[in-house]
Amino acid sequence: MSRPYDCIVIGAGSFGASAGMHLARAGARVLLLDMFHPPHKRGSHHGDTRIFRTAYTMGSAYVRLAERARAGWLRLEEDARRCFGLTSDAANRMASTDEQPERCKLFLPTGVISVGEAYSNALDKKEASCAANGVPYERWDEREAQRRLPALCVPTQAQVLYEPEGGVLFSERIIEANLRLAEAYGAEWKPNHPVQRIAAVGNAVEVWSGNERFAASKVLVTTGAWLPRLLPSLCLPVRAERRTVAWFEDTSGSYAAERFPAFIVHQSADSEYYGLPSVCGSGIKAGHHQLGQTWDPDEEVAPFGSCSGEERLLSEFAAQHFPEAGRCIRGAACMYEMTPSEQFIIDRHPGEPAIWFAGGGSGHGFKFASAIGDTVSRWMLHGKREPELEAFSLVCARLNT
Ligand SMILES: Cc1cc2nc3c(=O)[nH]c(=O)nc-3n(C[C@H](O)[C@H](O)[C@H](O)COP(=O)(O)OP(=O)(O)OC[C@H]3O[C@@H](n4cnc5c(N)ncnc54)[C@H](O)[C@@H]3O)c2cc1C
């Protein structure tokens, strides 16, 4: 067994790569382990992009965390630029994916719109949250929405809530940047290291991967859809669900990120589509938040199109709202790591104080990853939970089940 680390992070995806980078940046001796080689297509982070927004109706804890995350994304971009010698010219341009990931933009402010029936309360709740928490927003009626975004087909009597500070996060690029930075700050990074078991032994925690054994003073488990597996005694209420997204041609350029925002379309209380503008000709991306299948995370996710009707559903949505969009160019299938209430679970193990865990992103967690990595790493290093994290405790998660 190697010399004990200060901290081992198990699962170097969205949350883990960020936490590992923050821990290493703070000077801790860190080991990052993942059973695959993130970014990869077996977890919850692929498909290039994620929406960033602050208008949350799940409580002000989410708004505060999102605000902190926004600052975190800008800092990450700045650190990557400084560390890897990116010129500001290159940083301000959206580079194609064949360039070095850490040399590209990580957060692209495009604004985010929420579209909903004027008489539904989805937009009213978002507006109330923005007003209560000081989040900038505008509310447009159907005519104003048509004037501002002529390529969007706004349903009759629908309204729009516009968040100018929202935007697009490049999820896979961000994970690569976090891992590269973590290594630059001195962390050890071991991909293709599945962890089978962790156990507290005296003052340390031992971590087994195949026939290798590692030890640390503190361990963070950020294993996404697999979160309950390494902590079976906690019976964490996280379930994997398959979801699909599809990209549609933007032949006219009307849906390019320079002129079109990310979007959420509320059809009813339990039916919501979301999507992102076309980035460097990627096509406009769309998915459905609720529709999918319960999945065993150990099984490779069935590819896009393998469940009947899924391409048709997204094509019909695109045709209805984005009349200038063309055919479906490609699709992808990914896993949500759902909790029953869609609330995150971030806590210290109640029986093993050297073990922390963070997960249950429930299809909306990526935007917070910079803040989750930051706050959890401070908790691990300084022993004090910051108030932002209280709402995500295991006790709260159980009450919400
Ligand atoms: C289709 C889709 C669209 C989404 N859209 C948005 C959006 O627009 N905005 C937003 O904010 N969020 C969005 N999300 C949610 C967000 O992407 C997830 O909440 C987030 O990626 C979860 O991060 P994670 O670190 O928990 O999981 P992951 O990023 O999946 O990382 C978990 C890692 O743990 C590793 N691992 C698991 N078990 C082990 C083990 N035993 N040993 C070693 N390693 C292990 C895995 O290999 C993986 O790399 C979306 C999710 C999906 C699927």
UniProtKB/TrEMBL annotation:
Q: Which cofactor does it need?
A: FAD
Q: Pfam families per the record?
A: DAO
In its UniProt record, a GO molecular function of this protein is: N-methyl-L-amino-acid oxidase activity
This protein's record includes keyword Cell cycle: no
Q: Which domain of life is it from?
A: Bacteria
Q: Look at the named UniProt entry and state the broad enzyme category this protein falls under.
A: oxidoreductase
**Where is the signal peptide, in residue numbers?**
none
Listed InterPro entries = FAD-dep_OxRdtase (IPR006076), FAD/NAD-bd_sf (IPR036188), MTOX (IPR045170)
What are its E.C. numbers? 1.5.3.2
- FAD dependent oxidoreductase domain residues are 6-378
Mind telling me which residue stretches traverse the membrane in this protein? none
Q: Which NCBIfam families match?
A: PRK11259.1
> What protein is this chain from?
N-methyl-L-tryptophan oxidase
Task: Specify the species.
Answer: Paenibacillus apiarius
